[in-house]
User: Fold these one by one.
Assistant:
Number 1:
Amino acid sequence: MDKPITVLLYEDNRDLREGISFLLQATPGIVLAAACPHVNNLKADLAAYTPDVVLTDIGMPGMTGLEALPIIKATNPNIQVLMLTVFDDDERIFQAIRGGASGYLLKNTPPAEIIQAVFDVYRGGSPMTSSVARKVLQHFQQPAKVSSSEQLLSAREQDILKGLMKGYSYKLIADELHISIDTVRTHIRNVYEKLQVNSKTEAILKAMKDGFLG
Amino acid sequence: MDKPITVLLYEDNRDLREGISFLLQATPGIVLAAACPHVNNLKADLAAYTPDVVLTDIGMPGMTGLEALPIIKATNPNIQVLMLTVFDDDERIFQAIRGGASGYLLKNTPPAEIIQAVFDVYRGGSPMTSSVARKVLQHFQQPAKVSSSEQLLSAREQDILKGLMKGYSYKLIADELHISIDTVRTHIRNVYEKLQVNSKTEAILKAMKDGFLG
DNA sequence: CACCAAACCGCATTATCATGCGATTGTAGA
DNA sequence: TCTACAATCGCATGATAATGCGGTTTGGTG
């Protein structure tokens, strides 16, 4: 049916590298092109093996997996990169995601799932350890809006704020809402007080961060 | 060791509901409080069963799972909600995430993984079907930055832009970078020209939208 | 009815920003 | 070497924004 998936593995820990290599080789449908302890010959490797999927550690001597990521995606954005690492801090997770990683597994993932993940990324999925996924989801959820907040801003004030967030000047906002520029000023003054800020920029940032309500 | 996880299930399809119920009941460490075909008695259910985890379908007669979600989180934000559905469109996925869902499984998920997912959410993870995860990740990745863009902005210009994005005034940026305010002006001028904008706000919005590069 | 909040308007002052013009230095490349 | 450009600094001017103070109208609530 399908052609086999060509995988390239980077992992500095020898035992782990050999373990995963063995698994990959033993799996029908997967061809392990190479397994390297470092990513320093990255470009040559990519050219030589033309992998479909790159499975890589983050912490490696020399160039890290995170540094390698943009190079891989620049070489061929169709290559799916799966991070396999012990790090689960926000910083590295988001750096990986922004860099275009298609999956993020922690090293405590059982071998069978790692294999499954290779198939998943190749098919357009993004396998993620569930604790990692949680961190990702949290960045979408309204930051709790814990302490009430209700509708801190009146409807009109929200209109004005939306105008600011579109990059409009006071005058433009006034025109769009058919009110005078002085009224816009007044509303903005009130918005600033409610949001505890004192500039357009701060207001916009705050509004973006915790979605209109403080 | 641990107390069992109390689960509340909502699923209108009878076969599926009974199938999942059977699985949950057969799993040590999980107690199925109830399995309902609709979510219309939601508040009463929550009060009666005080679940740790709610497993819910999205498409149900009467109130949908998506409508129920905010009510659940409002009742007790500690309840972990796991969406189990056939829908994999962006709209519903993000509505669920924004609403505070802790996991999102498609119905083709094998039973064993559903059970595993219940444990995962309870432990603070966010199990997600990998195709759903992909959609989520895509919202973080730089919008392609299709046409080159290279490093449109010099390193220093990016420093200044970062300052703007933190809401700093020219003066603050100047202080932080140990340069004169006039230099800041100059850099900003150049940034504006490169980004094709003419105000702080526009620059920030543009920078946020397509990640520094235009 | 009296009170209050929201929405509306105006004016004045100071602060900050946007922009034009000009200039020096250092480094990388044609 | 000449050129190009990043990075630095300065001055000046008109445009916006921030803020203080004052005011009217309207709709809802105790």
Number 2:
Amino acid sequence: MAQKIKLSTIADALGVSTATVSLALRDSPLVAGSTREKIKEHAREIGYIYNRRAASLRTSRSGIVGVVVHDIMNPFYAEILRSIEHELDRSRQTFLLSNHYDQLDKQRTFIDTLLQLGADGVIMSPAIDTPASDIIMAEENGLPAVLIARDVDGAHVPVFRGDDAYGTALATNHLISLGHKRIAMVGGTDQTSTGRDRYQGYVNAMEAAGLEVMPSWRVPGPRTKQGGFEAAAQFLALKDKPTAACCWNDLVAIGLMNGIARAGLVPGVDISVTGYDDLEEAQIATPALTTVWNGQREVGRRAASALLDKLNGQTVRLSQELIKPELHVRQSTGRPVERV
Amino acid sequence: MAQKIKLSTIADALGVSTATVSLALRDSPLVAGSTREKIKEHAREIGYIYNRRAASLRTSRSGIVGVVVHDIMNPFYAEILRSIEHELDRSRQTFLLSNHYDQLDKQRTFIDTLLQLGADGVIMSPAIDTPASDIIMAEENGLPAVLIARDVDGAHVPVFRGDDAYGTALATNHLISLGHKRIAMVGGTDQTSTGRDRYQGYVNAMEAAGLEVMPSWRVPGPRTKQGGFEAAAQFLALKDKPTAACCWNDLVAIGLMNGIARAGLVPGVDISVTGYDDLEEAQIATPALTTVWNGQREVGRRAASALLDKLNGQTVRLSQELIKPELHVRQSTGRPVERV
DNA sequence: CTGAAAGCGCTTACAG
DNA sequence: CTGAAAGCGCTTACAG
């Protein structure tokens, strides 16, 4: 490895000061055009590498934004991340990704790392049981936060998410309108705000239609394809045999449909299934999945742009409007068939 | 935000020097046990945050490792990333993830960022057409690299990947042994070493069995579920109607099976399909996918551990043994049925 | 076992 | 338009 090249290397070579070089490289109008070009040219030639640590130590801005979610490999978050990536790329921020897998200590370690690196801000889908104090602590130490998908009571930071109760009500009402009366809710957890909201939407719709809400028709837990697949046996063994499943999300719905197919029944015919999120995969699934569009792109876009606003000192309203979900009807839902 | 707390804040409060505080916080044996405890206790109390930028400026180690792949949301890379994450977490390295989407300039921007941040190393699955000089430049600037999944000629860095030619030969031979004679290869690209190797393995197996390799039976391109789904029409319209498809990867295979099902045929019965990678999803697919285990976990583990070795100054052998793939037979392959 | 001082490579007032 | 100098918050010889 050759001798380290730094600002002063350039300054010495060209007979100017490091201040001038620094300004020139950042296109400051304070530097004469000809000087600037000469400096930039030379820097390129000798392969100068800007030292962001040194700069950041001095300016206390790092150009790093943290993003932490339950699991970046989950397509739901993946779609949000893509739009965050798109938004942040334009403002030349580097983003540090992490999974917390709903482990509070993993999340804390990550926030700590961000603080140590002097990150400019963080976008988070908080782990289950995240106390407001964790977020307040971050903010007090100069790490502004915005939340996505899940809320934290008392955190006093902007949250971007869909109207979950409304969304599951859309799906449930669709099933009811097809004639289903025994509808199960498969997957999800009461431990997140999202989980509670989605279940509530289902309950609301059932009650509004005068249908009975059987506690046993709730199959909590699954949140992945694997989970939905495994839940199929349990669902099919439910007493009073529900004719439809309102699933926690698309992954659970697709897994459940696979499990139902393995049991020799035809999803979309024998059993109606709805998803939630409208992942790209929903259209490819067989049968194509009836689901609720949840505005992932929009969530990511708004969250990133709100964080950038915050970084630029603008105030961001705490109460953000919920994104209105939309029902996308495909082939996985139909009129009920009595099961024997 | 309260007054910034730094080493000297602690030093002043306790009447010791910053040198002592620095050493104590890093558990140096040079500091007396009682002093150390007093310092650590106090630091915790007042909420001291270690400034890694400052430390890294001084030590020129950042604790950051970069990882760049085609697309982190692709389950194939996701599984590799999980094991990298697992491995690096143990050594307390922070890792910066990025997608290059096979765009050379995105990859270059990322490598630049790593250099600027003083990252300790990088694990990459190089973008298509990555010149060896890009990797050499990184190494010369103090950013050691190891490659995963794809090789770059002349880069002279360790590569961790499976034996792709052997793997597709396994799948193809399995189909041949079931009695298939007209086997198509669906998906993949000749632009990566992996793509060329996998196709070669298929060709080798066909030729070894004395079967004709029809150029028209190659359907290049698809690498995702969506791609496989869309390729179904093309596959089904192939002349001489192949009875089996050896797919580029599991995603393509699953997409293709969905497309075949939509066309009214039964995958695994009317058409045999093999995947590659053995993603978690392969078992859940309907029918369960016959596929080639590709050792993702192993690739990630070995790459991370090799990079850590490199960081610690150990020499890492350039020529790494290829990971031996294994065939996992499930329900998506069977004896050929003549199509009308 | 502990402290004083230099230095990592930038940027930013300040002066000219 | 350009330069000299201080300082961001650490760590590391070096001295005691």
